[in-house]
Amino acid sequence: MIGIFLSFLMFILALLFSPRDPDMEKLSSYECGFDPFDDARMKFEVHFYIIAILFLLFDLEIAFLFPWVIAISSYTLATTYNVLYVIFFLLILMLGLLYEWKSGALDWTSI
């Protein structure tokens, strides 16, 4: 109940004490400085999305490797097989990165 009360109290205080005279920049469609698009079907650069997907892919790779490092703290025969699996996993990722690099997906001069 205290959390709900404090939430409503902060909301009401923000409504009462917030400035009421925003400038023209704040009233524009986008605060990032770009004009809104005229047509939803206009061309856009897909290269930025490819870079974002590659970032997510390698970010997930790190998320998979951290628990693996903790899991192999004790050495057994199964650990040896797990190391081989992770080396195979990293090899596939590195081949994918090499393919992206050679195909020019990481080349920013083509934009």
Descriptive report:
It is a single chain. Helices cover 65% and strands 0% of the residues. It has 111 residues and is mainly alpha-helical. The protein has one domain: Methane Monooxygenase Hydroxylase, Chain G, domain 1, CATH 1.20.58.1610. Helix 3 packs antiparallel against helix 4. It starts with a helix and ends in an 8-residue tail after the last helix.
Largest sheet: none
- Distance between termini? 54 Å
CATH superfamily: NADH:ubiquinone/plastoquinone oxidoreductase, chain 3
- Any idea of the CATH topology? Methane Monooxygenase Hydroxylase, Chain G, domain 1
Query: What is the name of the CATH architecture?
Result: Up-down Bundle
Helix content percent band: 55-70%
In N-to-C order, the SSE pattern is: HHHH
**Radius of gyration over all CA atoms, rounded:** 25 Å
Number of helices: 4
Count of all domains: 1
- CATH class wording: Mainly Alpha
Mean pLDDT: 78
Structural class: mainly alpha
Q: Count of DSSP E strands? A: 0
Shape: flat
Spans of at least 5 consecutive residues with low confidence: none
